[in-house]
Amino acid sequence: MIHPSYSELMQVINKDIDADEAPLVNSRYSIVLATSKRARQIISGAEPFVRAGGKKPLSIAVEEMYDGKVKILPEDFEAEEGDGTEEF
């Protein structure tokens, strides 16, 4: 079994969203895209924000998101800000 589950991870990511706002993540597909993008960054040499301890990059990425170390940004954030911030 995967821990945390997709539903637990979605709840953690969307917990700071106001009731009148659209959730950042509303499907498993969104979670998979975000975690795989972060895992590719780790594979490419980015430092993990949690203890790796021999874990695979995807497990590290999931743990980072669950612990709130990595945030998923709305799709239009980068276009509005234009500051080069990575979007997950």
Structure commentary:
The protein is built from four helices and no strands. It has 88 residues and is mainly alpha-helical. Helices cover 45% and strands 0% of the residues. Mean pLDDT is 81; it is low at 79-86. Helix 2 (28-43) packs across helix 3 (57-66). This is DNA-directed RNA polymerase subunit omega. InterPro entries: DNA-dir_RNA_pol_omega (IPR003716), Pol_omega/Rpo6/RPB6 (IPR006110), RPB6/omega-like_sf (IPR036161).
Short summary:
Belongs to the RNA polymerase subunit omega family. With 88 residues, the protein is an all-alpha fold. Helix content is 45%, strand content 0%.
Mean pLDDT: 81
What is the C-alpha radius of gyration, as a whole number of Å?
A: 13 Å
Number of strand segments: 0
Shape: elongated
The CA-CA distance between the termini, in Å, is: 24 Å
- Please state the structural category: mainly alpha
The main pleated sheet reads as: none
- What is the H/E string? HHHH
Helix content: 40-55%
Residue share in β-strands: under 5%
Low-confidence stretches: 79-86
Number of helices: 4
How is the topology of this model organized?
Layout: H1 6-14, H2 28-43, H3 57-66, H4 77-81
Helix pairs in contact: 2-3
Key features?
88 residues, single chain, disordered C terminus, mainly alpha, elongated
